[in-house]
Each structure stands twice: as C-alpha cells, then as structure tokens.
Amino acid sequence: MSGRLMSLLAATAAAGAVVALGLTLFFPTAPTYAATPPLLDVSPVPQPREELLMDLSQKVMLGAESPTPDPEVTKISALAWSLVVMSDGERQSANVVNLDYDITVQPDGAVHQVVKAGPSVDADGQPVTEGVPAVGELMSEEEWPAGSPELRFTEPLPSESDQIPAYFAKAYETTELPDAALIINSVADLMRQRQLSSAEEATVLEYFAHEENLKVVGAVTDRLGRDAIAFSAAHEEDPSYEEYLLVATDSGQVLAVETHYIAQGRTDIPSPSVTGYFAWRR
Fold first, then answer.
1. Running DSSP on this structure, what letter comes out for residue 239?
2. pLDDT at residue 69 in the model
3. Is the dihedral angle over the CA atoms 104, 109, 112, 115 positive or is it negative?
C-alpha cells in the first residue's frame, strides 16, 4: 500500500472519529429509567366533582352488602406496587414486581399481613420471569397486636364528613389538618387495617365531594381491570406528587389509590410516572 493511500486512510479514520465524537457530544444517549407501570388511560367525564362524588356516595349506601359469613374476622386482599429503585452504579430497576397483600384483621383489631410476589412485567409491560421473585414467593410477613402504635385507627370514622380531616389529624397525633392528598393517603392507611362500613365509605366520598383541591381526572380502568372514576390532588408541601383516588363507577366503592410523579428533576424516572399503587380486591 502506498504511503499516500495510507495517509488518506488515516485522515479518513481521523475524520470519522471526529464525526463520531461530535455525534456523542450533540446527541447524548437516552437516560436509563427504572421500570414503572403505565399511566392510566383516561377518558373525560362531563359531570363536575361534587355531583359525581355525591352520586357515588349514594351508590355505596344503596348497595350496602349483607354481613359476611364470619363477621368476626376481616380479610383484606390487594394488588400493590411501589417504586423502589435498586441502583448499581447507573443500572436501574428493569422490572415491575407486583405484590399480593393478604391482610387478616382479628375481632380485637390485631392485624396479620402476608405479602407475596405477584406477576412481574418489564418496562414495556411484557411478562418476565427471569431475575424476579417467583409468583407466590413470600416477601414479608408481619403481625401487629391490638393496641400497637402502627394501628392508629381504633375509632370509627365520624358521621359528619367535615370532621374527616380532624379525625385523621388526631389519629396521626398532629394539630395540623391534612390536605386532600394526605386524606387520600390516610384513607388508604385506614383501609389497609380494616374494612369501612358502607356509611363510613359514603362519608369519605361526601368529604371529597366538597374538597375544592380535588380534581376530576376522568374515567379509567384500574390495575385489576375494573371501571372507575379517578380523582386527584397534589400535595401542598410537595406538589411534585399527586395522589389518585379511584372509585368504582357501578358501586361507588373505593377501589384503589395511586401516586404519580408530575414534576421535573428526577433522573431515575420520566415525568409523569406512576410511583405506587394499591388496589383492593372487592
């Protein structure tokens, strides 16, 4: 090979390196995000918040269920997921590992909670079995005897909906009344510890009907395939996150809660993203 040809090849290679470097500089690689569940697919609904929730509240009362065969023991079952970013250098969680909750509440209020792995999916929503817990694998098991500090809700909910914030403030031992987003969180905590009566659930919906900081998101299908109306409220102290309340269109029952990240700044997930949900089987 002639010296001139070698020089030309070397120059071409060098130019190619410069171009490649330029591409790297001007077109950075896409960030690697943790896997999260898909956002809810929303269809608009024409009714305003107050009308919707008062109608749903009436449905709860009209559809009051008969007593269970064993009223002394309450069984609560749910599907849940929460974003826990396992980071190894720049590597993020590649899969969504759903969790099955089975909660037993004894007559004295004691709670036994068993959490097992549910089906897992990847970032594209495709089922995955490699590198994830097997379906049914025990993830955690906890018991809280009656009177434990974790069991805050020893009293029934007030019958007057405007007293709901004060009830939760007392339960959490604070003098500051919670905002609408924290009320959604609090209702979820309560429903993880015991079942609400139809009257209690109707009162919760009545409270949200008059809560001006709650907005109607629209008609959705929840993580268990049920039709619901979604409502949301942003946290007053950290508006980066919104809490979602999903209410069944047919029965008015609270089906699920979700947390969505809606701000900018996080590098582990895009915006918006689902960062957690809890869907009761009822």
1. T
2. 45
3. positive
